[in-house]
Each structure stands twice: as structure tokens, then as C-alpha cells.
Amino acid sequence: MRRLARGRGAPPRSDLATQLGLALAPPNPIAADAVVINPTGETNVAGVFVAGDAGSGMPSLANAVAAGSNAAAAAVRSLLVEEHATSLNR
Ligand SMILES: Cc1cc2nc3c(=O)[nH]c(=O)nc-3n(C[C@H](O)[C@H](O)[C@H](O)COP(=O)(O)OP(=O)(O)OC[C@H]3O[C@@H](n4cnc5c(N)ncnc54)[C@H](O)[C@@H]3O)c2cc1C
Q: Of the residues 3, 15, 49, which should be mutated to test ligand 1's pocket, given the most ligand atoms within 8 Å of the CB?
């Protein structure tokens, strides 16, 4: 199975990020195709969150766990905001 993003400057493992229209950081010695994210894992595409090695942070287990937790919280917040906006339009 190919992975979403590859570390250590290797070629991209999957074109999923590109297919989704996600902005990629320039290749560097740590990651060839890391997805650009904000501190809560949000990408340039609404509703798409990224955590762990696929994102542009330093690859480590601790960072992946923290980023996953942050991204999950941000995704829940995003859904609640969307639901609230929908209920206001009813
Ligand atoms: C050799 C090596 C040694 C390391 N040593 C350390 C260390 O000592 N300490 C440390 O903190 N970090 C270490 N790291 C880094 C650490 O392993 C990673 O930062 C961490 O595992 C990232 O977690 P992740 O969940 O983002 O990605 P991953 O652990 O790579 O998990 C991604 C998972 O998604 C699956 N997947 C990918 N694409 C798809 C798809 N399209 N559909 C379904 N599943 C998919 C993959 O099969 C994989 O199981 C090391 C990394 C390597 C390569």
C-alpha cells in the first residue's frame, strides 16, 4: 500500500493529496510532499484535516499523536459550526 506522504526527501508515496487539491510544502530534507497545515491540522481545502507525517510538522510519534488529537478536535469544531450555520438557515 502506498502512503499519503513520504519523509526523508523521497518521492511522493501517493497522489491523494494532489487529487484532493491540497497545498504541498516545498520538498525539504525531512519530507518531499508534506501537506501545508495550520496548527490545528486544517488544510487549504475546507473540511480536509491532516495529521502526523503527512503534515508539515517534524515527524515523530509524539507529534503524530498530538497532531491527531488537535485535528480531531478541529474537525469536530468544524462540523459543529457547519451544523449551527445550517440550523440558522432553516
Ligand atoms: C525507521 C524509522 C524510525 C523512527 N523512529 C522514531 C522514533 O524513535 N521516535 C519517534 O518519535 N518517531 C520515530 N519515527 C517517526 C514515526 O514513526 C512517525 O513520525 C509516526 O509513525 C507517524 O505516524 P503517522 O500516523 O503520521 O504515520 P504512519 O505511522 O506512517 O501511519 C500511516 C498509516 O496509514 C496507512 N495508510 C497510508 N495510506 C493509506 C491509504 N491510502 N489507505 C489506508 N491506509 C493508508 C499506512 O499503511 C500506515 O499504517 C521513525 C520513523 C521511521 C521510518
A: 3
Which among 1, 4, 59 is positioned nearest to 30, based on CA atoms?
Answer: 59
Name which residue sits closest to atom 19 of ligand 1, judged by CA: 60
86 C-alpha to center of ligand 1: Å?
A: 37
In this predicted model, what pLDDT tens digit does every residue of 10-58 receive, in sequence order? 555 688 999 999 999 998 888 888 999 999 999 999 999 999 999 987 8
Superfamily, domain 16-88: FAD/NAD(P)-binding domain (3.50.50.60)
Compute the distance between CA of residue 50 and CA of residue 70 in angstroms, rounded to an integer: 10
